[in-house]
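Lab notebook: predicted structure, single chain.

Context: the supervisor wants predicted structures on file for every construct in the current expression panel, including those that have not yet been purified. This is the next one on the list. No modifications to the sequence; it matches the entry in the shared construct table.
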Amino acid sequence: MGRASTGAKSGLVAGLVWGIISAIFTAVALIALKQDIINALNSYISGNSAAQQVGLTANDLYNTVLVIGPVADIIVGLIVGMILGAIYGWGVNKIPGENYKVKGVVFGIILWLISAAFSALSVGEYGILYTVFNLAGAFVGAIVYGYLLGTFYEKWSKEPVQSQTQVSQ
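Prediction complete. Output recorded below exactly as produced.
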């Protein structure tokens, strides 16, 4: 099995855990910040004639997101986990670290930094508290994902780990 396919397989398993962690943080954030989210949805609906014509209420949308959000997190965790795992497998020897677990955690931190940059662009949607809560959940998920990615990659890989200094020599 090639490095990318080993990474994809590892990423699929790690992505499931990542998705479950994200689903938990999403559900907790939605419940804890219910009124803020409903207020934001009310503002959206009041400025959207299509939503008004359909008769959607903020409570309807909130309840839908409360059910669909966590399920979507798990599905996205599987799909994105597999894709990112393939990328990890393809470039694993270029990632700093002395073993696959450390390389996985470094990879996870890089993913989190990228997601944090995109989250900063959407702070205004539901407020700073919701964004910070999601960033914290994403950080935990990215670290766990990276660690598990490296663990499973090490378990299923037939290649010895190469540090970045070994690759450049």
